[in-house]
């Protein structure tokens, strides 16, 4: 009996020791980021960066930057973050929104930005995995350039393959709850990828991911609903008159995205003229077109009532960037089936509003930074661009509503959030499509609070579907409202009421 007990104790000790060894040695040490240029001091948690090959034959490689949680990395959720475009790097979220650092522009051109710890980083409560996807975006690349002709379904398939391989590299995080989160055109990336993950789990794909749910911010969803969202938004925000709204409604018969008559087109042109000078990513923020515009906008801003100015204020210690280039689609038009032009491709024939992304470019194109974060050599990826024109992208997955229905009906939790001053993908569209699914309302429209203040409004539906607005925020919610964004984020991950 004693021998048997001793054997059992030894077996349990061996299992425990093996588990501890797994926890301490599983993450590939060659991917560990030991220092971050521009930041002085110890990193608040472990950072890892590198590549995962999703297609050996083509040499298709996706780049990731992984920030371990500053809380309990062995228990906190793992969150995959995706920016949109299509064609935009998820370093957008890392640099400007919810990464571990706030970036202060260098005083001298050519110098590195100065990095400060971000008190509202999402890594405070979760492990965050930033991914450049698809191949051709950011630091991701392929040795076969035909891979740069891509689309929704191929991107979802590749990203699912990436996840399976990534969790094999970091198996200690497999037990953690896993969520997929993104914004803008990631309104397509997130549900299509979530569907691939769900199918993989059903099919027994290894490793088995502990997938719990997803979040989408100001996300592209459905051609008809997105297309009809702008005019009601402009009217509700007081950007167009009652008369013009009523005339457009009559002439367009409620169809604002697909003009049915010359009279309808004429009214929509008037709407465009009325909102033409606004920053479509946040109607409260000035739109910069050079020195004169900056001076005019600043003086106009000072004349605003303080209550209106405060609506768009942020606690971020560094200014919200002037540039909102390329991470958002559509530009006053819905995404339709077929080729979706990237912003650099559009800029040949359209003015790109509010441009200035110097901080991210200065940091990520610095040779010292690239070496520290383990990017491929410049001979392979010559430079980092926030949004690329290297890819040709096909929207081939149709409306996202069917994906959301499928996922929520299977019990996966979904939070659809919207900065309520974004005019690119207005909250009116997200509000409409979440309501259109037809689920029973289980948490009637009400305010939600952050730091003792009303931060927005929310409505909860059956099957764990929640719609939420963030008051005074633009297209990239954590950039404008970092404290509020961290609040709803951590409550959602924890399964708590918002």
From TrEMBL:
<dbReference type="InterPro" id="IPR018202">
    <property type="entry name" value="Ser_caboxypep_ser_AS"/>
</dbReference>
<dbReference type="GO" id="GO:0004185">
    <property type="term" value="F:serine-type carboxypeptidase activity"/>
</dbReference>
<protein>
    <recommendedName>
        <fullName>Carboxypeptidase</fullName>
        <ecNumber>3.4.16.-</ecNumber>
    </recommendedName>
</protein>
<dbReference type="GO" id="GO:0019748">
    <property type="term" value="P:secondary metabolic process"/>
</dbReference>
<dbReference type="Pfam" id="PF00450">
    <property type="entry name" value="Peptidase_S10"/>
</dbReference>
<keyword id="KW-0645">Protease</keyword>
<keyword id="KW-0121">Carboxypeptidase</keyword>
<keyword id="KW-0325">Glycoprotein</keyword>
<comment type="function">
    <text>Probable carboxypeptidase.</text>
</comment>
<dbReference type="GO" id="GO:0016747">
    <property type="term" value="F:acyltransferase activity, transferring groups other than amino-acyl groups"/>
</dbReference>
<dbReference type="InterPro" id="IPR029058">
    <property type="entry name" value="AB_hydrolase_fold"/>
</dbReference>
<keyword id="KW-0732">Signal</keyword>
<keyword id="KW-0378">Hydrolase</keyword>
<dbReference type="GO" id="GO:0006508">
    <property type="term" value="P:proteolysis"/>
</dbReference>
<dbReference type="InterPro" id="IPR033124">
    <property type="entry name" value="Ser_caboxypep_his_AS"/>
</dbReference>
<feature type="signal peptide">
    <location>
        <begin position="1"/>
        <end position="26"/>
    </location>
</feature>
<dbReference type="InterPro" id="IPR001563">
    <property type="entry name" value="Peptidase_S10"/>
</dbReference>
<comment type="similarity">
    <text>Belongs to the peptidase S10 family.</text>
</comment>
<keyword id="KW-1015">Disulfide bond</keyword>
<dbReference type="GO" id="GO:0005576">
    <property type="term" value="C:extracellular region"/>
</dbReference>
<keyword id="KW-0964">Secreted</keyword>
């Amino acid at each position: 009996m004693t021998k048997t007990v001793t054997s059992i104790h030894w077996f349990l000790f061996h299992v425990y020791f093996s588990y501890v060894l797994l926890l301490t040695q599983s993450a590939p040490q060659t991917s560990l980021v030991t220092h971050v240029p521009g930041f002085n001091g110890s990193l608040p948690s472990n950072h890892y960066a590198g590549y995962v090959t999703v297609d050996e034959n083509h040499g298709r490689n996706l780049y990731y930057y992984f920030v371990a949680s500053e809380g309990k990395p062995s228990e906190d959720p793992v969150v995959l973050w995706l920016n949109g475009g299509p064609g935009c790097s998820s370093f957008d979220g890392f640099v400007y929104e919810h990464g571990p650092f706030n970036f202060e522009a260098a005083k001298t051109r050519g110098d590195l930005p100065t990095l400060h710890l971000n008190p509202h980083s999402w890594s405070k409560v979760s492990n965050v995995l930033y991914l450049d996807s698809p191949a051709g975006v950011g630091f991701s690349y392929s040795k076969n350039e035909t891979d740069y002709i891509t689309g929704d379904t191929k991107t979802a398939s590749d990203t699912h393959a990436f996840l399976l391989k990534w969790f094999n590299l970091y198996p200690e995080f497999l037990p953690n709850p896993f969520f997929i989160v993104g914004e803008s055109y990631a309104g397509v990336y997130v549900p299509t990828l979530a569907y691939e993950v769900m199918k993989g789990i059903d099919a027994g794909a290894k490793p088995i991911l502990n997938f719990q749910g997803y979040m989408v911010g100001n996300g592209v969803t459905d051609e008809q609903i997105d297309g009809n969202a702008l005019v009601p938004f402009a009217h509700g925000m007081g950007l167009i008159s009652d008369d013009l709204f009523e005339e457009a409604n009559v002439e367009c018969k409620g169809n604002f995205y697909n003009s049915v008559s010359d009279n309808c087109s004429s009214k929509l042109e008037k709407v465009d003229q009325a909102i033409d000078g606004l920053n479509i990513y946040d109607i409260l923020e000035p739109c910069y077109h050079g020195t004169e515009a900056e001076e005019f906008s600043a003086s106009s801003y000072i004349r605003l009532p303080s209550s209106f100015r405060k609506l768009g204020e942020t606690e971020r210690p560094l200014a919200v960037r002037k540039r909102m280039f390329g991470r958002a689609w559509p530009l006053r038009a819905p995404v339709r089936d077929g080729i979706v032009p990237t912003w650099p491709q559009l800029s040949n024939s359209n003015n790109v509003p509010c441009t200035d992304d110097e901080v991210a470019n200065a940091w990520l194109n610095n040779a010292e930074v690239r070496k520290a974060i383990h990017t491929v050599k410049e001979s392979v990826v010559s430079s980092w661009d926030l949004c690329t024109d290297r890819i040709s992208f096909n929207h081939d997955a149709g409306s996202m509503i069917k994906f959301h229905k499928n996922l929520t009906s299977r019990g996966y939790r979904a939070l659809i959030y919207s900065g309520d001053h974004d005019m690119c993908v207005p909250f009116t569209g997200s509000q409409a499509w979440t309501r259109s699914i037809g689920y029973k309302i289980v948490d009637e429209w009400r305010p939600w609070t952050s730091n003792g203040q009303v931060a927005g409004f929310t409505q909860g539906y059956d099957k764990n579907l929640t719609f939420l607005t963030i008051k005074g925020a633009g297209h990239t919610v954590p950039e404008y409202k970092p404290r509020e964004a961290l609040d709803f984020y951590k409550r959602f991950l924890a399964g708590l009421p918002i």
